[in-house]
Every structure is written in structure tokens, then in C-alpha cells.
Design brief:
The chain is α/β, with parallel strands linked by helices and 262 residues long. It contains eight helices and 15 strands. The protein is elongated and about 70 Å long.
Length: 262
């Protein structure tokens, strides 16, 4: 009798992990050997347990699914089924680089299709080829600035809600505020929540246009109207709409250089 395939489930949402585990438990050819609640746990589990298959959430705080792939290395990465609420552009990339992807929310039938594809990939030892394709995906993603134009930074951000997907041009953003696992985009008096860390956003946005004024805020430099001194070397930025943002003391010189070059 062939041993069950060993599966790792990675998702930062406990209910999502439970749901995937329950679906996998119906298949006697699969055995869930571990769960991981974040990217770091996922890397450790992949390297120590060497599962045959990983169900990998793409959007996680601190270390996302792409960073997990990079950290493990394509040559050591087992077969992967992405679980994501990502946009259609990214899904096309996943389609050529992964065994399969599951777009949240998914039904049992779609899940079963992904499982069968994954089992076939493992049986035919396709993981090596998958590794090469994942490496290509990572390289092209970094060259494109994740969601941007080739060789550049992001030109649009995709903001999903229950009712719609908003394609927001970055030049429309006034400033960005950290909000737990989310970033709150301030746009013409409205706010939009984006599930992404400030560090990730800072890396994706053009530094000639956006500047991180402190740990919890990134500002569109075009919106800065004036700067006033506070105490102990700190300053406050006043935006065109009157919003006031504190500028960390150690960031003053970099901000002045950024503004002077415009």
C-alpha cells in the first residue's frame, strides 16, 4: 500500500486552516503532517518535515507566500497549491508557476480538482520542474515590482471588498496609515483597507513619489504642503487637505533630500 502524501497547510487564519484540513481529511491518500500560521513557521516546517505538498496562503503578515518560496528555495520547494484572494493578473502568473491555485472563497468541487492535480504532480515528480518555474516567477515578480510595470514600481493597487475590486492608481493616494495587518489608504477624504504590511507597500511604491515619515505612515510627497517644527527635533507635515503627520526626527534629512529633488 502506498504511503499517504504528506501535506503542510499554511494560512494565518485559524478557521481557514481548519477548513482546509477538514477537506483534506476526506482523502485517504493525504495526511496533514503540520499547520503553519505564518511564513516563518512555514519555512521551518518545510525544511524540517519535507512535506510532499503545501497548501500555501499568499497574503500573510510579515512574510508572505512569495517570501516563503524565496526563503526555502525553488530547488527544495515541494509541490504548491496557492490559496489566495489575489487579483486576476497574479492568478495568471500562478497558473503557469504552481500546481494549482484556489481563489477564496472556493467550493468543495474546486478544492477536489486542485487536490487531484497536486497528487498527479507529486506522482509524476513534477516538483523539480515546478521549482524552475517558481524561480522564474519570483524573478519576474521582483523585476516588475510585484504589481507594477516591468522594471518599475506599482502603478495601481488592487483593493478588494465584499462588493467590488477597486483598481486604485497610486497617484490618487494621499497617504497610507498602518492598521494592524492592514494598510489604510487615504484617498480624497475616503479610506480603503488593503491587506498588506507597510514594509511591503513601501518596497512596492516609487520612493521618488512616496516617503515613509514614521513607522505607521507613508505620505505621497505631492500632497505635502508645508512642514513645521515641533519639539526635540521632530516636525509635523501638513498635507494639502490639512492632515497633520508627525515626521520622525531621524527622517528629516532624507525627506528634505527627497523634496529637493522634485
Amino acid at each position: 500500500m502506498t504511503a499517504p502524501l504528506r501535506v503542510l497547510v499554511v494560512d494565518d487564519e485559524p478557521l481557514a486552516r481548519t477548513g482546509v484540513r477538514e477537506l483534506l481529511s476526506r482523502d485517504p491518500e493525504l495526511s496533514v503532517v503540520a499547520e503553519a500560521a505564518d511564513g516563518r513557521q512555514a519555512v521551518d516546517a518545510i525544511l524540517s518535515l519535507r512535506p510532499d505538498l503545501v497548501f500555501l496562503d499568499v497574503q500573510m503578515p510579515e512574510m508572505d507566500g512569495f517570501e516563503v518560496l524565496r526563503e526555502v528555495g525553488p530547488e527544495r520547494m515541494p509541490s504548491v497549491v496557492f490559496i489566495t484572494a489575489y487579483d486576476q493578473f497574479a492568478l495568471r502568473a500562478f497558473d503557469v508557476a504552481a500546481v494549482d491555485y484556489l481563489l477564496k472563497p472556493f467550493d468543495d468541487e474546486r478544492f477536489d480538482v486542485a487536490v487531484e492535480r497536486a497528487k498527479e504532480a507529486v506522482r509524476t515528480h513534477a516538483a523539480g520542474d515546478l521549482g524552475r518555474r517558481l524561480l522564474g516567477l519570483l524573478d519576474s515578480r521582483e523585476a516588475a515590482g510585484a504589481h507594477g510595470t516591468p522594471g518599475g514600481y506599482a502603478s495601481r493597487l488592487l483593493v478588494k471588498s465584499a462588493a467590488k475590486t477597486l483598481f486604485l492608481r497610486v497617484e490618487e493616494i494621499d497617504w497610507i496609515e498602518a492598521d494592524d495587518y492592514y494598510a489604510k489608504l487615504h484617498v480624497a477624504g475616503k479610506t480603503h483597507l488593503l491587506r498588506e504590511t507597510m514594509a511591503s507597500l513601501e518596497a512596492r511604491l516609487d520612493p521618488d513619489r512616496f516617503f515613509r515619515v514614521h513607522r505607521s505612515a507613508i505620505v505621497n510627497l505631492d500632497r505635502v504642503r508645508e512642514m513645521q517644527p515641533l519639539f526635540r527635533g521632530e516636525h509635523v507635515l501638513i498635507l494639502q487637505d490639512g492632515t497633520r503627520l508627525k515626521l520622525t526626527r531621524g527622517r528629516l534629512d532624507k525627506l528634505e533630500s527627497a523634496l529637493a529633488g522634485r
